[in-house]
Amino acid sequence: MQTIGTYLKNRGYQSLFFSNLAETLGSSLFNIVLVIYAGMMPSHSQQGWALTAVGIANFVPGIYQMLTGYLADRQKSPLKMSRNMKMIQAACYLVLACFINQPFTWLIFSILLLINIFSDSIGNFSTSLLLPTMRDLVSDEDRERVTGFSSGILQSISLAGQFIGSTLIVVFTYNYQIFSLANAALFLLSAIFLFRAARYITGTVKGEIAADEEQERVNQHFFKSLKLAISEVLSVPMLGRYISIYTIAGLVGAAFGEVAILAFLRTPSLQIISFGISVATMQTVFAVGSILGSIVPIPFLEKRSLATVLLLQISFVFLLVLAFLTACPFYIGFSVMFFTALVQGKVQPKFSAWVMNHTANKNLAFAMSIISTATTITLPLGQLIFMTIANVFSITISFACMAVYILCLLGYIFFVRVKEQKQQLL
User: Fold this and answer.
1) What distances in angstroms separate CA 413 from CA 31, 53, 127, 133, 300, one per listed residue?
2) Model pTM?
């Protein structure tokens, strides 16, 4: 077992890690700037439609991430391809810098959104390309700790990027061109780190595919190959059940936050000082809890199985929904919220490590992208269902429906946990 510091001294892993940092900072900087840009539209009506378009655009790349993951697994030189993708992303924002400061028109805004969707899509593709290489650089016994550390740092950078972006845009008097150029520079820096990585990562660790295997993949019909890849991924014991848990849980995931914001607005007893501070505090508590969960060692959770930790996380979500359903004082709700996020911070790297340890390199990116796509698709559906109930009937009924739904989910996770224990005995 090696320490995190040992991996960070490994120049191959170090280069990939800093490449991801640069890309994460660039993406978070521009995402918050895009929201601010949409909010600066001439009229309230335009602001509303622009913000709606931004929200939809953020979901789009995740919908077909399964396809990008499938394609990533079939690249002969993934490290080289990932480097090329980051250079294309840099070029996209250089082009965007040429016209982003022009007076607002829906045509310019549409082009801006399309470039951002394209950049996020190839960013997902680039990340998927590097998964097998990252896997080969970390031992199985260290993967959960290293993945948790990496996830926590990237979340911290993303959070800091949003704060920095929203502050600097005011300092630069809403000069969006500067941010577009900064984004291009960060993606270029990310590509440079991958050039550096190529010097220290060689052979099979690069994830290069043997010529005969590559030829066999090319000769396969696309849909036949896709169907075969799906069957191979789902043949991994327990993986299909874990994907189903994430898919089912996704219906509540984003919906709770939206209904909670509505609850803050209509129930002053839930607020901390004011509505705005309450929403900001909720987002901060979730972010801090999740980051701490990813970085700080918690032996009790690390020694438990994935199904057990998932059961604990969803149990906290159930308590959180009950806290809002019964209009508990804010300090109770936010305390449960923190522990929910803390456990979530452990679940994500544990699940990623589990998938990496149980999935062959040739299908690794595809397996991870199936999970991402399944979750992404259910998020807006959950928001639609529970926000509709909240608006048509009441917030209380919406939370009550969530509670019943989560109880059913807990029963299913308990069933999966039993299956997992039987699998371990075989």
Assistant:
1) 35, 35, 29, 32, 19
2) 0.70
Residue 274's beta-bridge partner residues? 272
Handedness of CA 321, 325, 330, 331 (dihedral sign): negative
In this structure, what is the dihedral angle of CA atoms 351, 357, 362, 368, given to the nearest 10 degrees?
0
DSSP bridge partners of 272: 274
| Sign for the pseudo-dihedral over CA of 30, 32, 38, 40 | negative
Q: Is 141 exposed, middle or buried (0-12, 13-18, 19+ CB in 10 A)?
A: exposed
For the chain, the 3-state helix, strand and coil shares in percent, each to the nearest 5, are 85, 0, 15
Domains in the chain and their CATH numbers?
4-219 (1.20.1250.20), 233-425 (1.20.1250.20)
SS3 of 220, please? coil
Which residue has tokens 């057990």?
308
User: How crowded is the C-beta side of 353, counted as CA atoms within 13 Å?
Assistant: 23
How many whole angstroms separate alpha carbon 42 and alpha carbon 105?
A: 10
Amino acid letter at 110?
S
Residue 266 CB neighbour total at 10 angstroms: 12
CA 175, CA 192: separation in Å to the nearest integer?
27
State yes or no: pLDDT of 390 exceeds 60. yes
From residue 375, alpha-carbon distances to 326, 339, 363 in Å are 28, 22, 19
Maximum average pLDDT range among 91-95, 106-110, 162-166 = 91-95
Band of the pLDDT at 401, cuts 50, 70, 90? very high
Alpha-carbon torsion 79, 84, 88, 93, what sign? Answer: positive
- Cα 296 to Cα 342: distance, rounded to the nearest angstrom: 10
The secondary structure of 97-137 as a DSSP string is: HTTTTSPP-HHHHHHHHHHHHHHHHHHHHHHHHHHHHHHHH
* pLDDT tens-digit map of 30-72: 777 777 777 676 666 666 677 667 767 777 787 777 777 777 7
Q: Is the dihedral of CA 391, 394, 397, 398 positive or negative?
A: positive
More confident residue, 188 or 287: 188
CA distance 15 to 200: 9
274: phi then psi, degrees, rounded to nearest 5: -150, 170
